[in-house]
Amino acid sequence: MAKKKKTKKLMMTPGMKLLLIILLIPASVMIYSAFLKSWFYHKEISEIEKIQEGFDIKIPAEYIPIYIAAGKKYDVPWTLLAAHHRVETKFSTTDTLISPVGAEGHMQFMPCTFVGWNHPSCNGLGKGNIPESEKTDPKVIEKYGGYGVDANGDGKADPFDLEDAIFSAANFLSRSGAKEGNIEKAVFQYNHSKEYVNKVLYYYKQYERISPLLEKEVLAWFE
């Protein structure tokens, strides 16, 4: 009977072991760091949800940093942006982001308001007949005096992009008086309805009461 060949065990030298340990340390640190970040992220989200107990619809935690950034850039309360988002599309949870009268996107801009009322097709309620290629073109928006903003730097100002929509709303509200503290006037400019104004102000005041706590929790994500 032929003898089975013994397979040689791969022997690692002390130098190879040391090298392997050195290579594994960064990977272990990255995995541990990712775990900690995930744990703290979910912990902060649960805290934010707890702060909002009693609200009919809670402000999505992941949207709050966007509201804060847009609010700082255009000098308007971030809670006002959240209130508009709540009233317009229930934080983007409505069945469609296009209204029966033609308002578009997360914050429900009429195309002529977003692109600019100086566009030759704009009249009436502001639906216009603006080509799709022009609707998101920052140069076209600048030309016609619109409020659309390319917030994420992708070369488009898109009302169906959450960041662009929120920053565009902040731009509109700021230029409509919110920057000077004329909150009610700015909201009315957004939608000429007293009922609409009352709804937005209701949620704005509700969010203002807890804004310091929410901001504290959000800032903890970045520590």
UniProtKB/TrEMBL annotation:
Pfam family for this entry, one: SLT_2
Domain of life according to the entry: Bacteria
GO terms of molecular function: peptidoglycan lytic transglycosylase activity
Residue ranges constituting the Transglycosylase SLT domain according to the UniProt record: 143-182
GO terms of biological process kind: peptidoglycan catabolic process
Protein name: Lytic transglycosylase domain-containing protein
